[in-house]
Description:
alpha/beta
Amino acid sequence: MNYHFKPSKDELVSKTVLLAVAGTTGSGKTESAMRIARGIVGDNGKFCVIDTENRRALNKKSRYQFDHMDLKAPYSPDNFKGAIDAAEQAQYGAIIVDNLSHEWFGEGGCTDMQEEALERMSKGDTDKAARLTALAWKGPKQKHKKLMYRIMQCAVPIIFCLRAEPKIKFQKDNDGKMQVVDAGWQPICEKMFGYEMLIYALLMPENPGVPVMLKKLEPEFEAMFPLGQQITEESGKLIVAWAAGSKAVQHDWRDEIINAQSLDELAALWKKIPKDEKAALETAKNTRKKELEIPGEQLI
């Protein structure tokens, strides 16, 4: 085995370029995804759309030329993986998945898979079902994890569209009373999905196509998706320029956090992270710590 190091300035960044746009109906998810894809592939390049929305992406065909796949249920991780495999083999310049929320909550998706597994294991016994709920997630989470590994190895840029919905959470006030608190709009997907994205934008119907929230960006990316401005083809063009050899981004510790296999490994990793980066990673660490402490649940 030959171990050889090169200066980072001489190396290209990862070929895996993953982006996600989330929002409710009318927020401009599909339009924004197509603008990004067109910018990535250029005027003469080809991109494809993996459509789970009953061919709705074809409403855009008068403005954007693309190849279309009408992906039907079951919306299992394996089904999405097969579609992405086919798109990469066809050598498209970019892939749009519209939308990936079906992989988690759609017909035959991970939630359905868990419910079916729980029914098989409990045979209608509610007490038994309560004890086996976490274990019933083992299979679906394994499938989802394999899909994510496949996505992370893809050499073709992928833009994911996700549905979003308003959420609430419960927390205690200063008097110790439990209160219902608005948690804002949240994407419908596996909770750690966003950590794998290079760019993760939330769009709202009041101002379609304009990000109201972005995953913490490195300085190189701020010009690609400026807050308060509509996403355009220029965003895709800038991503291509960056991936072709501009500045490398700062090390993102999130991948290592979510892949820690034990509490001891997580604790050792946390000691290595620079102090000025820990605040931004606190949620990922706490989420992973909670997962590792749940007995019988498949690690994700």
